[in-house]
Amino acid sequence: MAPRKIHRYRIHFSKSEAIRFTSHLDLYRTWERTLRRAGVPLVYSQGFNPRPKMNQGPALPLGYTSECEVLDIWLKEEQIPGNILDNVNHVAPEGMRIQSVQEVDPRVPSLQSQVVAIDYEVTLHKPPLPDDLQRSVQALLNSKKLPRQRRGKDYDLRPLIESLEISHQDKGRVTLRMILSAREGATGRPEEVIASLGLDPTYARIHRTRLILEAE
User: Fold this and answer.
1) Residues 103 and 174 in one domain
2) Is 138 in the same domain as 205?
3) What are the C-alpha distances in Å from 94 to residues 22, 37, 62, 64, 101?
4) H or E segment at 133?
5) Residues 58 and 144 in one domain
6) Does the chain have fewer CB atoms within 10 Å around its N or its C terminus?
7) Residue 1, in any domain of the structure
8) What is the CATH number of the domain that holds 161?
9) Cβ(178)–Cβ(193) under 8 Å?
10) pLDDT tens digit string along 72-116?
11) What is the reported pTM?
């Protein structure tokens, strides 16, 4: 008997204020419950503790919001993407909104292996004077090295910053846009960029706007 064909679907969704302190692991569990409630026929692993076959995109740190989160799911039966979208949105928790669903080739590599960079929008609620901030941004971009330390290990932040600019200034609020590397072993963190500008990340709101895939 030929093996049963399984189907892979990619869900694009947003993570807003209501769940910005939900961890990556807890979000996985939330998705499992939500898809089960929506009646989506998930493929499960074998063994003592079966788990649904799902693959999340790069982890979103606590406190961040995002409009570009991605989840791949494997199903036992072919589904109409629009039906998945409607059924899941009907039972999704506050703060998680499905934007689109598409079927993808099951042989496509994992999401984590395809992402090479991430686009962020950072709102500064206690920004320095505009001229001072512009000088800090330019000095950072002109730097050949930006020594930082993460988890007790030294590294150079500068090659992880692909672009950085002031995108908006208005009434005491400033928005920075930055594209940071997200390759394996070479991932830039927005809060580290903010600290390298001499600012306190505590007063920044970080929003993920785009995952840049290798094919792009």
Assistant:
1) no
2) yes
3) 12, 15, 17, 16, 19
4) helix 130-142
5) no
6) N
7) no
8) 3.30.70.3190
9) yes
10) 999 999 999 999 999 999 999 999 999 999 999 988 888 888 999
11) 0.91
